[in-house]
């Protein structure tokens, strides 16, 4: 009697480089990252709750609104939405450095898969979590009195700009994680992201700051996104006399595209070098 054993098809190097396999590999890596959420629910909850705490703290405890015309909460919430898209990269950076540190990347390297799928899967999972966090923040903002005053097209345009900014910051974070290389270095590298958030118009208008500082703040990529979404939401704080304020919508697209043009290829190239 003879027995027949079915063997799984072996993927060749040429097949592994095709678009279909690249998408399949990226989706497999995305599912792997999403599975971490079930194993680390506390980290996910903290990521969602921390920006809400900041919003409530600045809205009720600290206050502010120097130079703001109108309700401060309507100025603050769009700024906090942009700030949330800039922060919270620690989980992404930790996941990347842990995979490097534990040799997971070496195991993926031995498989017939597209090397960039690991990073793409990580970025898709992060964007899903970011979209959930953005929805939570919008809901909390609505609950404390913030409103958008234009139609659904403007609302969706503002959300699109926020997610575009997040996508650019995500690839900046991935590149920094690949440079750091080890999980213990993430906290030190993450500190570099904080000036982007706090040297911005999230909490106060540039007009209320010293001249030189206001100029720096107005050209901050996060300030461009915050000003553009305020305009799309119809909230106070969108107007301004400088070129950067008057062209915030343009800068809110150009800054993320420029960041992606620099850090996306850098991250993919560095990861490919690590995988050889």
User: How many strands appear in the DSSP assignment?
Assistant: 0
SS strand fraction:
under 5%
Compute the CA-based radius of gyration: 21 Å
Main beta sheet? none
Distance between the termini: 46 Å
Task: Quickly list its features.
mainly alpha, 276 residues, single chain
Question: What does this entry look like structurally?
Answer:
With 276 residues, the chain is mainly α. Helices cover 72% and strands 0% of the residues. It contains 14 helices and no strands. The longest helix has 29 residues, at 152-180.
Tell me the layout of helices and strands.
Layout: H1 13-16, H2 19-39, H3 41-62, H4 72-86, H5 90-101, H6 104-109, H7 117-143, H8 152-180, H9 186-190, H10 194-198, H11 211-218, H12 221-233, H13 243-246, H14 248-274
Quick synopsis:
By secondary structure, this protein is mostly helical.
């Amino acid at each position: 009697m003879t027995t027949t054993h079915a063997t799984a098809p072996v993927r060749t190097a040429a097949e592994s480089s095709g678009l279909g396999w690249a998408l399949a590999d990226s989706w497999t890596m995305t599912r792997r990252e999403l599975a971490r959420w079930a194993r680390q629910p506390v980290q996910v909850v903290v990521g969602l709750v921390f920006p809400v705490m900041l919003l409530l703290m600045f809205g009720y405890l600290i206050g502010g609104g120097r130079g703001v015309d109108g309700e401060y909460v309507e100025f603050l919430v769009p700024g906090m939405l942009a700030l949330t898209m800039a922060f919270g990269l620690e989980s992404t950076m930790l996941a990347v450095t842990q995979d490097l540190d534990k040799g997971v990347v070496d195991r993926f390297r031995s498989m017939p898969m597209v090397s960039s799928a690991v990073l793409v899967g990580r970025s898709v999972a992060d964007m899903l979590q970011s979209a959930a966090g953005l929805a939570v923040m919008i809901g909390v903002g609505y609950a404390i009195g913030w409103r958008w005053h234009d139609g659904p097209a403007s609302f969706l345009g503002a959300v699109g700009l926020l997610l575009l900014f997040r996508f650019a910051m995500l690839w900046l974070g991935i590149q920094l994680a690949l440079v750091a290389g080890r999980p213990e270095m993430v906290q030190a590298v993450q500190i570099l992201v904080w000036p982007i958030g706090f040297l911005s118009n999230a909490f106060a208008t540039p007009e209320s700051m010293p001249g030189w500082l206001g100029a720096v703040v107005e050209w901050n990529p996060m300030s461009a996104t915050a000003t553009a979404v305020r305009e799309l939401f119809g909230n106070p704080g969108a107007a301004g006399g400088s070129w950067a304020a008057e062209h915030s919508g343009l800068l809110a697209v150009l800054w993320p595209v420029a960041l992606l043009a620099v850090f996306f290829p850098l991250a993919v190239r560095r990861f490919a070098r690590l995988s050889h």
